[in-house]
Amino acid sequence: MIITSNKLCSILQEASRAKEYFRIEPERDLFILDEKPDKDDVLGADDRPRSNMSFFSASARPHLKHRATVFSLGNRDCVLKQELEAPIIIPHAQQKAETKYPYEYLFRSEQYALLDNCCREYLFLCDFFMLNNRSAPEFFTEIFEKTFKLLQKNVETFISDSYDPIAILLCMHLIYRYQVIAN
């Protein structure tokens, strides 16, 4: 297989654009991320104010508006059913509309964009460079390696700071569902 410098430059530019998109979008997602639980939002925590608390020891921490939903699925599973192949969420458009989303919806949007981009690029690489089944995955991984590492770092950061087990489980299932689609 012969790769000309122009073809290689074109591929590397495309990979750079993909990496830039996936680098910027998580930063924008923070503005449309719905209120998330923290370490004090746990099952069995006492919500009542204590009568023996002094003025200075009272907690000034704002509580979640919907604290009961932290450990219930509610309608959050819609992300796996109706929303699985929905259009991606455009953060700056949703920010103007002042729409907030739980983390799993933002994760779904990012992963769906990645799935779409990767499938298209993989097929393009195979067709354009006439790659066989052994060399195509290696070439594809080399191009998208930085993007994959960036997304992995973003997910690891979320998981290390998260107190939302439902979101983590939904994200895991989203990855599984997208793997099935990609194959």
Structure description:
It is a single chain. This protein has 183 residues and is an all-alpha fold. The chain has helices spanning 5-29, 91-96, 103-129, 135-161, 165-182. It has one domain. It contains 5 helices and no strands. It is elongated, with a radius of gyration of 21 Å.
Bin the helical content: 55-70%
Q: How many domains make up the coordinates?
A: 1
- Our count of helices gives 5
Tally of strands: 0
Largest sheet: none
| Chain-averaged pLDDT | 79
List the helices and strands and how they pair.
Blueprint: H1 5-29, H2 91-96, H3 103-129, H4 135-161, H5 165-182
Question: Which features characterize this protein?
Answer:
0% strand, 183 residues, mainly alpha
Q: What's this entry about, in short?
A:
This protein has 183 residues and is mostly helical. The protein has 5 helices and no strands. It is 56% helix and 0% strand.
